[in-house]
Amino acid sequence: MTAARFPSHAVFESVLRFPYRLTCRTGLHVGAGKRADLVGSDLPVLRDAAGRPLVPGSSLRGVLRAAVAALCDPLGLDDAARRTPLPSATGDADLDQLHAQWNGLKLVDRLFGCIGGKDGLTYALRVQISDAVAEEETVAVELRDGVGIDRDTRTAHREGGVKFDLEVVPAGTTFSGQVRLLNAEDFEVGAVAQALWMLDEGLILLGGKSARGLGWMEVAVGTPRRLTAKDILDGPAAPAAAADDDLGKVAERLAPYLAALRAFAASAPPIEPGDPSAASATA
C-alpha cells in the first residue's frame, strides 16, 4: 500500500466535479418546518426564491454520509484507511502529529468532515453538493391529509391537533445539481458513488415521511471531470462532446471509481488477535 497523503484544504491538487439528477419515483417531502400562521399547509416543502421545490445540498449530503458510514464497518474501509502507511517523518513535530491524527480518522470523516474534541482533529468536508433545483418551471405540489394516531388505543389522538396536512412533491419531478470533491483519491470518489447507487436502488431514501412511502429516487450522473492546478493555468478546455454531457446510471458513469473502492476494500488485511487497531475498528 502507498503512503498516506494528507489532503490539505489550503493546497489545490485537484477538484473532481460531475452533475447529478434526481427524479422522484414516489412523492418527496423535504420539509421547511411547521408554519406559525394559519395560511397554507401545516407541513410545507422547502422552496427556492421562485417558489419551486428545492432539495438542499445538505439533505442529500446527509443521506450519502450516513450510507458511507454504514458501509465502513462491514467492508473494512476504516481498517484499510487506518492501516495505510504514514508519510515519512518531516522533522516538524506539529505536522507529524497532524498526519497521525488525520490517518486515525474514519473514512467518512475524511470525506464529510468532523469536529474534534479538545485534543481531536477538526477537519473540513471535501465533498460539497449543491442544492438540487427543480428542472420544471412549475411544479404542482400535492397536498395530503394525515391524522395523528395513538399507538396504544389505535385511535386518533384526542390532544394536540389530530388532523394535519403536508405538501408532497409529486412523482416524476426532476431536480438537478452538482457534486464536487476536493483533492480526492479514486476510492474516495467511489465511496460517494456507492452511496448514490444505493439511493438509486432504493436502499436508502431521501427526505422525510419515508414511512408513508415517500423518498424513493432515481439517480443519474454525468461524466466526472477532474481539474488540476495546471488545468487552471492552461485555461478553459475545449467544450466537451455532447455524449459526455448525457447523464446515465451511476454504475456506468462512475464505474472506474466503484472499481477503485472495491480494490481499496480488498486491500484491508485481516485484523489479528491483539492488534491495537481492532479496538478502534469496533469503537
Rg from Cα: 22 Å
Q: List the helices and strands in order.
A: EEHHHHEEEEEEEHEEHHHHH
- N-C termini distance: 24 Å
Structural class: alpha+beta
Strand content: 15-25%
The average pLDDT is 83
| Shape by Cα distribution | globular
Overall structural domain count: 1
- The biggest beta sheet, please? 7 strands, antiparallel
Number of helices: 10
Question: What does this protein structure show overall?
Answer:
The chain is of the alpha+beta class and 283 residues long. It has one domain (14-88, 126-282). It has helices spanning 57-75, 77-82, 93-103, 107-112, 186-200, 229-234, 242-245, 250-253, 255-266, 276-282; strands spanning 14-24, 54-55, 127-129, 132-134, 142-147, 149-150, 155-156, 163-168, 174-182, 217-221, 225-228. Strands 1, 2, 3, 4, 9, 10 and 11 form a 7-stranded antiparallel sheet that branches. A two-stranded antiparallel sheet has the order 5-8. A two-stranded antiparallel ribbon has the order 6-7. Strand 6 (149-150) and strand 7 form a beta hairpin. Helix 1 (57-75) packs across helix 5 (186-200) and helix 5 (186-200) crosses helix 9 (255-266). Mean pLDDT is 83; it is low at 36-40 and 273-283.
